[in-house]
Design goal:
The protein is mainly beta. It has 3 domains: 6-89, Nuclear Transport Factor 2, Chain: A (Roll), CATH 3.10.450.40; 99-201, Roll (Nuclear Transport Factor 2, Chain: A), CATH 3.10.450; 227-444 and 474-611, Copper amine oxidase, catalytic domain (Beta-galactosidase, Chain A, domain 5, Distorted Sandwich), CATH 2.70.98. Helices cover 7% and strands 40% of the residues. The protein contains 6 helices and 30 strands. It has helices at 20-33, 102-110, 113-121, 294-298, 526-530, 564-567; strands spanning 40-47, 59-66, 72-78, 83-89, 130-135, 150-157, 169-178, 183-189, 227-230, 233-236, 239-246, 250-260, 263-279, 291-292, 318-325, 331-353, 358-375, 378-387, 392-400, 404-406, 416-420, 423-426, 428-438, 446-454, 467-474, 491-495, 508-512, 538-542, 579-589, 599-611. Strands 15-16-17-18-19-30-27-26-24-25 form a 10-stranded antiparallel β-sheet. Strands 9, 10, 11, 12, 13, 14, 23, 28 and 29 form a 9-stranded antiparallel β-sheet that branches. The longest helix has 14 residues, at 20-33. The radius of gyration is 26 Å and the shape is globular. Bound molecules: cobalt (II) ion (CO). Cobalt (II) ion binds at residues 398, 402, 428, 430, 589.
């Protein structure tokens, strides 16, 4: 009991993320009753979210493994009682690659004489300048990789300390590292390609001059923000929700509700990024093995940044710290990981009556709840937006550094873009999948597909202008594996068929898929096999606490077909019950020279918009306002 914090406090709400003391206590309780010995590591220590928010129990989900045997176990820990209440072996499961293992993989590679010799063949002898990134391996049928937990290193080399090493890819050299045993399994040397040595730096220390003429733009909120925060609960302009955070998903929104007159109406029970995958489209050497699942294989939450006031976030900011676990079971606090603030977002609505010349205009604003994760060379910003008119938006920003490769002599045309002398950025996609536990006006929801189509010409359509709105309820899981159809302007609405509004509609929210493009990956590719969620733009399942991860519970070196493709084979009913909508969307990244050496943010995401949820525009009561700080230039 010695390592359990005696000051373990009871959380104020059942959905509050684990505190640092609770993380440490959960590890200590598991160690006390199920000690795996010196090789014991902790993949995940996270709140076991209660089925009922009123539950007084406080439990943790723990995934722990032994690097000596590779065995992995899941535990449910009652923090209230100090005991393990469930202990489940998960044979064959491989834990995520932890941040603690990133530099370890590089050290293991650099300690191997075969790797050192392969670098020397390329004229690289100063190992301090060598940067080997820790990539997940996937499953490629090599006999010597079987049963191991692997990291493949992909290598770059600096010209000098602090220069951008991604400008200097060491093409054609990979160390396959057994991260559990701390050894190199194999060196894959695909042949020497000259290392491009021209520098391409982005950091301030290398910028020779600054442009002039940029006057400050300051966000002024003289009376403070319009939101209130109580622990992890937030209220803003009629909206209410709870903030959560997990090592694998990062930011979670719980119990999102909106006040409508005297009533508070539910919209989402829980929303999070559940998975993402980045497949690369080059068929040779190491490149087919680049299919990073940044949630399932790394954990997008554990990679969250500490944000900087006035740089990352402007205005009146509330920060939440995130608590994650290290692989030794200790807690790590990521300070200022989640940013909460308001933004002006232009005109909300406007009209001028041209007869009376009376003008009404209201400014819009949004609440932004966000975090940014660094995954090796890349940054992902996840910005949930709540708007005054009831709209919910997820805006994903992609920035950072493209995964550079060395230009080989085989010719790269059609596989990517030359972005520097000897440097190429290959075609790839970033495919995201969000898990949306819907709760529109109550627990029982149904998804309806809505198409807009032209009617055939005929006596009913003499001028060939007739359009019809076709509504198709999606009643079972297989019927609800759907794709967008641009020719039919397809979208989906999530409705509550147990309720009818004064106008005779079932209240709903529509999912507007901004970025629902799929990777064209073939069915037998790693992505086709291990990331089946990419094959449809939406999926609908009955909400289940056991079905959290669209590509399976353990994605690192996973077997094919897990998650959404397997669950939905049951073809369960998904109408008029608690349902989860899974939406896949993507950024197709044909690399531009302008993305290099550091990429200006690009966006993808989706909207959830009220559709007959209200009987009219719900923002008529937004008061007119004039900014006292605006002036004529
Ligand atoms: Co990209």
């Amino acid at each position: 009991m010695d390592s359990i914090d005696p000051g373990l406090k009871v959380a104020s709400h059942a959905l509050d993320p684990l505190s640092p003391a609770e993380v440490a206590a959960a590890a200590a309780i598991v160690r006390r009753t199920h000690d795996l010995g010196a090789g014991m590591r902790f993949e995940t220590i996270v709140l076991k979210e209660p089925e009922e928010a009123t539950s007084g129990d406080r439990s943790a989900f723990v995934s722990t493994y032994d690097i000596a045997t590779g065995n992995l176990f899941e535990a449910i820990v009652s923090l209230s009682d100090g005991i393990v209440t469930r202990w489940t072996p998960r044979p064959g499961a491989r834990p995520r690659i932890a941040p603690d293992e990133f530099l370890l993989a590089e050290q293991i590679a650099k300690a191997d004489p075969r790797f050192v010799a392969a670098l020397a063949k390329r004229g690289i002898t100063d190992l301090s300048l060598v940067c080997s990134d820790p990539w997940s391996c996937g499953v490629f049928g090599h006999a010597d990789e079987e049963g191991r937990r692997l990291i493949q290193t992909i290598t770059w080399v600096r010209n000098r300390p602090h220069d951008n090493h991604y400008a200097h890819p060491v093409e054609g050299l990979t160390a396959i590292v057994d991260i559990n045993r701390g050894e190199v399994v194999r060196i894959d040397d695909y042949g020497v390609v000259p290392v491009p040595r021209e520098e391409s730096n982005y950091s301030a220390r290398f910028q020779p001059t600054w442009r002039s003429g940029l006057k400050p733009i300051e966000v002024v909120q003289p009376e403070g923000p319009s939101f209130t925060v109580d622990g992890w609960a937030v209220e803003w302009c009629g909206w209410s929700f709870r903030v959560g955070f997990t090592p694998r998903e990062g930011l979670v929104l719980h119990d999102l509700k909106l006040r409508d007159g005297a009533t508070v109406r539910s919209i989402l029970k829980r929303a999070s990024l559940a998975e993402m995958v980045v497949p690369y489209g080059h068929p040779a050497d190491v490149h087919p093995r680049k299919n990073a699942f940044d949630c399932g294989e790394y954990g997008i939450g554990v990679l969250a940044n500490s944000l900087t006031l006035g740089c990352d976030c402007l205005g009146a900011i509330h920060y939440f710290d995130a608590v994650v676990n290290r692989i030794d079971g200790s807690a790590q606090v990521i300070e200022n990981a989640i940013c909460l603030h308001e933004e002006d977002c232009g005109v909300l609505w406007k009209h001028t009556d041209f007869r009376t010349e009376e003008t009404e205009v209201r400014r819009g604003r949004r609440l932004v709840i966000s975090f940014v994760a660094t995954v090796g060379n890349y940054e992902y910003g996840f910005y949930w937006h709540l708007y005054l008119d009831g709209t919910v938006e997820l805006d994903v920003r992609l920035t950072g550094i493209v995964n550079t490769a060395g230009l080989t002599q085989q010719g790269e045309t059609g596989r990517g873009t030359r972005i520097g002398p000897g440097v190429v950025g290959h075609i790839h996609q970033h495919v995201f999948n969000v898990r949306l536990d819907m709760e529109v006006d109550g627990p029982n929801n149904t998804v309806v597909e809505v198409d807009t189509v032209a009617d055939p010409p005929g006596p009913e359509n003499p001028w060939h202008n007739a359009l019809s709105i076709l509504e198709t309820p999606l009643l079972t899981e297989k019927a609800a594996r759907r794709r967008t159809d641009a020719a039919r302007m397809r979208w989906w609405k999530i409705v509550n068929r147990e309720r009818t509004t004064a106008l005779g509609h079932h209240p709903g929210y529509r999912l507007v898929p901004h970025s629902a493009l799929r990777t064209p990956a073939a069915p037998l590719s790693q992505v086709g096999q291990r990331a089946g969620f990419v094959t449809h733009d939406i999926w609908v399942t009955p909400t289940s606490a056991e079905e959290r991860w669209p590509a399976g519970d353990y994605v690192n070196q996973s077997a094919p077909g897990q998650g959404l493709p397997a669950w939905t084979e049951q073809d369960r009913p998904v109408a008029d019950r608690p349902i989860t909508v899974w939406h896949s969307f993507a950024h197709n990244h044909v690399v531009r020279p302008e993305d290099y050496p550091v990429q200006p943010s690009v966006h993808c995401g989706f909207l959830l918009q009220p559709f007959a949820f209200f009987d009219r525009n719900p923002t008529l009561d937004i008061p007119p306002a004039t900014s006292a700080h605006s002036c004529c230039a």
